[in-house]
Write a structure and sequence with these properties.
Elements (H helix, E strand, L loop, with lengths): L6 H6 L4 H13 L1 H19 L15
């Protein structure tokens, strides 16, 4: 049995070549996998569009 590729790694472009190929195969042949990818795709796009400063944690206020 082949391991199902990590959807988030696939969408983020972090999957290795073998995992990416397997994900692309499943996109063509597995409606459940394709639905999961399409459900998460807009979330990944919104996160990717966020400015870099949105990812930087704010400095804590000084203690009195």
């Amino acid at each position: 049995m082949r391991v199902r590729p990590d959807v988030t790694a696939y969408l983020l472009g972090e999957a290795d070549a073998a995992e990416r190929a397997r994900a692309e195969e499943l996109m063509r042949t597995d409606p459940g996998f394709r639905a999961e990818v399409e459900r998460l795709r807009p979330v990944v796009a919104r996160l990717a569009a966020m400015p870099a400063e949105a990812w930087t944690p704010a400095e804590p206020p000084p203690l009195d």
